[in-house]
Design a protein that fits this description.
Number of strands of chain B: 11
Mean pLDDT of chain A: 91
Radius of gyration of chain A: 14 Å
Low-confidence stretches of chain A: none
Low-confidence stretches of chain B: none
Number of helices of chain A: 0
Oligomer: heterodimer
Number of helices of chain B: 0
Shape of chain A: globular
Strand content of chain A: over 45%
Order of helices and strands of chain A: EEEEEEEEEEE
Structural class of chain A: mainly beta
Radius of gyration of chain B: 13 Å
Largest sheet of chain A: 7 strands, mixed
Strand content of chain B: over 45%
Shape of chain B: globular
């Protein structure tokens, strides 16, 4: 396993621009999660994929946010019309090989994408 | 609904001293609990997890945690702090049915020489 990879590591954008982040999970991990972490806070759940299906979305995921996981491999998180409040670290995590129970399996996190909206 | 509370946003210890980071949970079902560590500008790394097997859980880097149902606690300890332990530590509980984690606000550990 090469670990969860996120790209880019840092992104600075002007307010109103669109941004897209990519996450490559550990190969064969069928579950993928996106979290947002603001300064001084713990990560907060945004959305969850099992294979290519997006099965859960947090109320934090406004209409300006969209996530995809085509073919159940990598995932993208897009933020449209960015606002200063979107500035945060966006973390991706993957877990579980097929057949494992869901609640007690370890989630492996990427290093995150730090977004700064100016 | 599940939640975790970490008591103390900052903890400072001397090198070689005991580390104690506190976490209390609230859960309507038997919880699965985790401790993660985060170094500056990095992702999270799992230290240990409780999944209802043994109440005393040993993790990496000499850390351990004890699940106490009567106290709804899952405190993290290490007998002797090392400078390299300086980081932020997060307690988490499994949230919804999809295995997403609910994190506490974190405790920043400083280690003085």
């Amino acid at each position: 396993d090469t670990g969860v990879s996120q790209d880019p590591r840092h992104k600075i954008t002007k307010r109103g621009q669109n941004v897209t982040f990519r996450c490559d999970p550990i190969s064969e991990h069928n579950r993928l999660y996106w979290y947002r972490q603001t300064l001084g806070q713990g990560p907060e759940f945004l959305t969850y994929f099992q294979n290519e299906a997006q099965l859960e979305k947090s109320r934090l995921l406004s209409d300006r946010f969209s996530a995809e996981r085509p073919k159940g491999s990598f995932s993208t998180l897009e933020i449209q019309r960015t606002e200063q409040g979107d500035s945060a670290m966006y973390l991706c995590a993957s877990s579980s090989r097929r057949g494992a129970t869901i609640s007690n399996t370890e989630a492996f996190f990427g290093q995150g994408t730090r977004l700064t909206v100016v | 609904a599940q939640s975790v509370t970490q008591l103390g946003s900052h903890v400072s210890v001397s090198e070689g001293a005991l580390v104690l980071l506190r976490c209390n949970y609230s859960s309507s079902v038997p919880p699965y609990l985790f401790w993660y560590v985060q170094y500056p500008n990095q992702g999270l790394q799992l230290l240990l997890k409780y999944t209802s097997a043994a109440t005393l859980v040993k993790g990496i880097n000499g850390f351990e945690a004890e699940f106490k149902k009567s106290e709804t606690s899952f405190h993290l300890t290490k007998p002797s702090a090392h400078m390299s332990d300086a980081a932020e530590y997060f307690c988490a509980v499994t949230g919804g049915s999809q295995g997403n984690l609910i994190f506490g606000k974190g405790t920043k550990l400083s280690v003085k020489p």
